[in-house]
Write a structure and sequence with these properties.
The protein is of the alpha+beta class. The protein is built from three helices and eight strands. Strand 7 and strand 8 form a beta hairpin. Helix 1 crosses helix 2.
Length: 155
């Protein structure tokens, strides 16, 4: 079976605040893209994300944005990904959902899929699962407490 994972976490902020933290490049750069983000996440956009731990800006293809509910992205999955785009680059699919909870928090769920069922595909998926888990933790710390959790963590 091809590697696929889903992670989730709750953040003590309204859905609109949490969603905006992801789609707004200035906010995303505060807690996730340690090298900076360029471009707002909007359907059809190609934005760039840069990370100190993986230098060089990554193109992120935004395939769907439904305000305060859902974001779907595709980004390079190296040779470990199944699906190639028109340019021949292999991409994985990332789906983020945002839902209000009964107690006023936001449940964020992130699923990534599209790797080959191979040792390389599994290894790549494990690395990305770690990255998205770190992103959720850092977003919670920043939104709820103003803490830059990734500061100095990777570099």
């Amino acid at each position: 079976m091809a590697p696929r994972f889903t992670i989730k976490g709750r953040i003590a902020k309204p859905v609109s605040d949490v969603f905006e933290a992801v789609v707004n490049p200035e906010h995303l750069s505060e807690f996730f893209t340690t090298g900076g983000a360029k471009g707002r996440l909007e359907t059809g956009a190609v934005v760039t994300w840069d990370f100190h731990d993986f230098p060089g800006a990554f193109p992120v293809h935004v395939t769907e944005v439904e305000k305060d509910r859902r974001i779907v992205l595709r980004w390079d999955g190296e040779a470990a990904a199944v699906e190639a785009d028109a340019s021949g680059s292999n991409k994985t699919k990332v789906t983020m959902t945002f839902a209000p909870t009964d107690d006023g928090r936001t449940l964020v769920e992130i699923t990534e899929e599209g790797w080959l069922d191979s040792p390389e595909g599994r290894s790549a998926s494990y690395g990305n699962c770690e990255g998205w888990t770190g992103m959720l933790c850092a977003m919670k710390a920043w939104l709820e407490h103003g803490i830059h959790l990734r500061d100095g963590f990777y570099k």
